[in-house]
């Protein structure tokens, strides 16, 4: 998932410009209009440099969805509902696990912040369309934060500060400061419940 950072018309122009060499499979307008741009069986150039688990060519194994949003305001209800419908369809047709639904900031934490702090990951998780950890004490031994983050899918080579920032952007939006116990508990729960991200 991505936010456009520009209007839908500007995004459409950009995504259809062969000179720009950027594309996505779908574009969702604030109004809820769904625009199909690239066939799902074709590669779109939306992810750029990054990795998720051991996958370093994310464009080849993903479906890119751009959502009209400037990154500063909440997503519209119409766009959110359209996204949920699209994701539910994709999950059903491709038999995708919830852990397969990620944001641009997940795979490229050193470069990207979309879909951003206003994207409602927790709502998607309630619908079975993403994952969300519950920060509860566990009896199992906790892994160091970066080890657990790598097991979940984040590339550990980006460093603690960058990975922690990307993790919090998605799972603890608005939270700042040093790594804390809640961060560790949440990432450990994700690592234990959804290991082997490379099997997607």
Q: Summary?
A:
This protein starts with a strand and ends in a 7-residue tail after the last helix.
CATH topology title: Lysozyme-like
Sheet-strand content, in percent, reads 5-15%
Order of helices and strands: EHEEEHHHHHH
CATH hierarchy, class:
Alpha Beta
Number of strands: 4
Q: Helical content, roughly?
A: 25-40%
CATH architecture: 3-Layer(aba) Sandwich
The residue-averaged pLDDT reads 90
Distance between the termini: 17 Å
Major sheet details: 4 strands, mixed
Question: Total helix count?
Answer: 7
Order of neighbouring strands in the sheet with most strands: 1-4-2-3
- Give the number of domains: 1
Low-confidence stretches: 196-200
Radius of gyration: 16 Å
Identify the overall geometry: globular
Q: Find the structural class using helix and strand composition.
A: mainly alpha
CATH superfamily: Peptidoglycan recognition protein-like
List the helices and strands and how they pair.
Elements: E1 2-3, H1 8-15, E2 26-28, E3 34-36, E4 65-67, H2 77-94, H3 104-107, H4 121-126, H5 145-152, H6 160-171, H7 181-193
Parallel strand pairs: 1-4, 2-4
Antiparallel strand pairs: 2-3
Describe the structure.
By secondary structure, the chain is mainly α. The chain has one domain (2-199): 3-Layer(aba) Sandwich (Lysozyme-like), CATH 3.40.80. It contains seven helices and four strands. A four-stranded mixed β-sheet has the order 1-4-2-3, with helices on both faces. It is globular, with a radius of gyration of 16 Å. The chain starts with a strand and ends in a 7-residue tail after the last helix. The relative contact order is 0.15. Residues 196-200 have low confidence and may be disordered.
């Amino acid at each position: 998932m991505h936010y456009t950072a520009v209007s839908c018309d500007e995004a459409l122009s950009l995504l259809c410009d062969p000179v720009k060499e950027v594309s996505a499979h779908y574009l969702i307008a604030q109004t809820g209009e769904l625009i199909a741009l690239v066939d799902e069986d074709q590669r779109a150039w939306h992810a750029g440099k990054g990795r998720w688990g051991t996958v370093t060519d994310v464009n080849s194994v993903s479906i890119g969805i751009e959502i009209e949003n400037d990154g500063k305001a909440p997503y519209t209800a119409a766009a959110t509902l359209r996204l949920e419908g699209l994701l539910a369809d994709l999950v059903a047709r491709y038999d995708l696990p919830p852990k397969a639904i990620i944001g641009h900031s997940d795979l490229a934490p050193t470069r990207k912040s979309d879909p951003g702090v206003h994207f409602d990951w927790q709502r998607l998780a309630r619908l079975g369309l993403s994952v969300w950890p519950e920060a509860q004490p566990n009896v199992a031994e906790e892994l160091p934060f970066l080890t657990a983050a790598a097991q979940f899918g984040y590339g550990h080579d980006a460093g603690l500060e960058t990975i922690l920032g990307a993790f919090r952007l998605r799972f603890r939006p608005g939270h700042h400061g040093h790594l804390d116990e809640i961060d560790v508990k949440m990432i450990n729960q994700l690592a234990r419940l959804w290991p082997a991200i490379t099997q997607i």
